[in-house]
Amino acid sequence: MPKNMTDKQEESTIDPIGEQLRDEGRRRVAGNTQAFLKKHAPFDKMSAAALQTFGDKAQIVFYPAGSEIVGPAAGNVRFFYLIESGKVQARQAGEVAVTEYSILTLGVGESFPIGAVTAGRPSTNVYTALEDTFCYQLPAEDFLGLMASSPEFNLFCTQYIASLLNQSRSQLQQQFAQKASEQQTLNSPLSGIGARNPLAVRPETPLREALEIMSRAGIGSIIVSDGENKPLGIFTRGDLLDRVVLADLPLDTPISQVMSAEPFALGEQATAYDAMLSMATHGIRHVLVTDPAGRLSGIVSERDLFALQRIGLSQIRQAIETATDIGALRRSAADVRQLSFNMLAQGIGAEQLTQFISALNDALTRRVIQINLDRHDFAGIDWTWLAFGSEGRDEQTFSTDQDNGILFTVPANEDQAALKERFLSFALAVNKDLDAVGFPLCKGNIMASNPQWCLTLDEWKARFSEWIRQPEPVALLNATIFFDFRPLYGKSELADSLRRHLLAQAAASPIFLRAMARNALDVGPPLGKIRDFITDLEPGHPGKIDLKKYGSRIFVDVARIYALAAGVHNTNTLQRLRLASQRLSSGAEDVNAVLDGLNFIQLLRLQHQHLEGEPGRQGDNLIDPEKLNGLDRRILKESFRQARKIQSRLKLDYQVQ
Hints:
Elements: E1 3-4, H1 16-31, H2 33-37, H3 48-57, E2 59-63, E3 68-70, E4 79-85, E5 88-92, E6 103-106, E7 111-112, H4 114-119, E8 125-129, E9 133-139, H5 140-149, H6 151-184, E10 195-196, E11 200-201, H7 207-217, E12 221-225, E13 231-236, H8 237-245, E14 260-261, E15 265-267, H9 272-282, E16 286-290, E17 296-301, H10 302-307, H11 313-322, H12 326-345, H13 350-373, E18 383-387, H14 389-392, E19 404-408, H15 416-437, E20 454-456, H16 457-469, H17 473-482, E21 486-490, H18 492-507, H19 510-520, E22 545-546, H20 548-566, H21 573-579, H22 581-584, H23 588-611, E23 622-623, H24 630-653
Parallel strand pairs: 11-12, 15-16, 19-20
Antiparallel strand pairs: 1-2, 2-9, 3-8, 4-7, 4-9, 5-6, 5-8, 10-17, 12-13, 13-14, 16-17, 18-19, 18-21, 22-23
Helix pairs in contact: 3-5, 5-6, 6-12, 6-23, 6-24, 11-12, 12-13, 12-15, 13-15, 16-17, 16-18, 19-20, 20-21, 20-23, 20-24, 23-24
């Protein structure tokens, strides 16, 4: 059991060894505290007043070898410990590793458990004295007070949290890497490759009907199966020339007469390597996949096997830039998603990855626009295609829809109404094609094909000025979407002119910025007073947290306001926070802690959208915090605290009640 060296209460029975240790503790506290602290970080950089505070509030406690100092069973951590002499072992509680280590030895000058005492929760580690050990013991409330009064001590604790964020990111990357290795190697089972439940017809089906089915579905082959869905044959476009056209067969011929009988098939548990070897051996381009009962369940093509291999950036960009139809761009969009997944597995951070996804999505959008310009002529007209929302901020995740508009000028010899109708017709075609490529139509109709968002430069300026002059709820909502704009195609100088107008108007309207601040504070991070998180905010989704609505959006909204006030042209949230840090009156360390919090939330969103989303469907932003491991829960809570911190700063700066 620990011996408290500052306890002056007399004991009825004096333990000579205990009394000796008590005297030793009194001697250490009385004369050597500040001298000791000055030898160790961060105390060596702290003010004399801060060191005096530590000395006044801390007690020195003795722990004999083998004794437990603190652990999960003790409940919420009540003290911050600093090792004065001896050694302490930190051992993870439970069987699941939540940090990069399972056992760690701490020595003189090291402290613990910083994350737990900061969060006011039980320790996730068991700390045991490896040898006779003296520790300074600072009560949790005094620890938090010291963090508030000493910038150096606060920085030390902030950097500790940042190191945990790095550990958690590494853990997420390992999970992605494992998933990637399962999905991207030739050892992958055929049950997860290629088309599932492929189209099939009966043997008596007329050739014309089979060809019509293939044409409508845009496929190059069709399976022939019996009444129990067991494959009998396959017919491909390659068979059409030799077996039908050159043979001069009528189109009412049953497909059974022209199919390739007894097509090669493998079971669902066979691997991609088995399929590749079979194609090479038999000179075929398709392998059918069957379930244990021999029924057709899928088909794997040469392209499916090629897609398993590493996809390169240059290949994707070349494929996008040379695509001649929407079908080719749809395949490139799937490649973008797969390459993004590979990058996660390789350790790319959330900031770089979201910008990467946005950049390739920009390329896809530009190519869709170019393909449609072949049918719409705007020669001699200055115009630009604008991206809004997450794409306008270079922050797209795996789950994204369309938010776009058109900005144009009217030449002297053109009728404005007629020109707008031409742009609307063009925009409608582009919006539909983007939807076909994989960017769903915006449910709120924030698209260039909506006449409200296909405007001249003067009309856009007037619209922005109106929202700033009269910051009603709808205007404020529009500002959160449209003020994050970026030109994707056309004359970018038009967008630059609109940006200068926006920044000048916003900076000159403190009433608007205060209204934006009040609006940004309507939603706070879901931190509970008793539980770690509030998980009943989303109707119909009990136990879930919307990481976008209650997480990343908070950072985005705050960054937008400070960027508008400071005249920052950049629309990316992380860049806005960095560039507006002087306006925030925050040091680089505090800003970095905020950025780490946002990056962690974004990484969790990416993980959830890809690993939790159903095949062929985009994932959502709803996570169950109970399913997170201990480290991720802890860092998510700290990330939400960073969100609350910048909201508090916003509330103070704009005097929002």
